[in-house]
Amino acid sequence: MSNSPQYPGGYLPPEGEPEPERDPEEESQEENRLDTERFRRTTPARLRPIPPRRSHGYWRLIAGATTYVMVVGGMADYSEPQTRAAAHVLFWLLILAAMLMTLSREQKHGWEPGPRWPYAVAALGGAVLVELLVLLVGSPAIIVGSVILLGFVSFVLMLAG
User: Fold this and answer.
1) Among 16, 17, 78, 113, which residue has the least CB neighbours within 10 Å?
2) Which residues touch 19 (CB under 8 Å, ≥6 apart)?
């Protein structure tokens, strides 16, 4: 729209007045302006809601189960069996809490239900792996393996930046 007093507003001149001759250059500029108006945002970007997205993969679950195996396996020879049993129960409760939080987010955001088996595998697999490693190699070997694994993971993370 122009600020000219000739046109009071709108795209068409008032009725009863003849349409003035137009310059072809002005017509092409007006067409370009109309093309850009078609793609103008109706809602500013900062007012648009950001849709919640489901997390990709189970890397937190894997990292937590691996850390659990390293810590509980490393302390097995140096603590009482009841302490290790309490650590297993606490780990299972944490895995259950993570699964319940995932269920809550699915219901809240209307997502399709995800698989539940990774939580059971992490809970049972972590506890079984701790006991097997303690029986097969002992706590000192688990501690050394944990330090080597953490060093490797730190190296890879530093490469990734």
Assistant:
1) 16
2) 13
Q: 138: which residues sit within 8 A by CB, 6+ positions away?
A: 77
Cβ contact 93:123 at 8 Å: no
Q: What is the pTM of this model?
A: 0.66
94 — alpha (psi -120 to 50), left (phi > 0) or beta? Answer: alpha
How many Å apart are CA 86 and CA 62, to the nearest integer? Answer: 21
Averages of pLDDT over each 10 residues, the chain, 161 residues: 56 61 65 63 71 84 95 94 94 96 91 92 95 95 96 94 76
Q: Which helix (H) or strand (E) holds 155?
A: helix 139-160
Q: Tokens representing 128?
A: 């079984």
CA atoms of 85 and 97, how far apart (whole Å)? 19
Q: Name the residue type at position 34.
A: L
In the DSSP assignment, the letter for residue 2 is -
- Residue 153: count other Cβ atoms within 10 Å of its Cβ: 12
The C-alpha atoms of residue 146 and residue 141 are separated, in whole angstroms, by 8
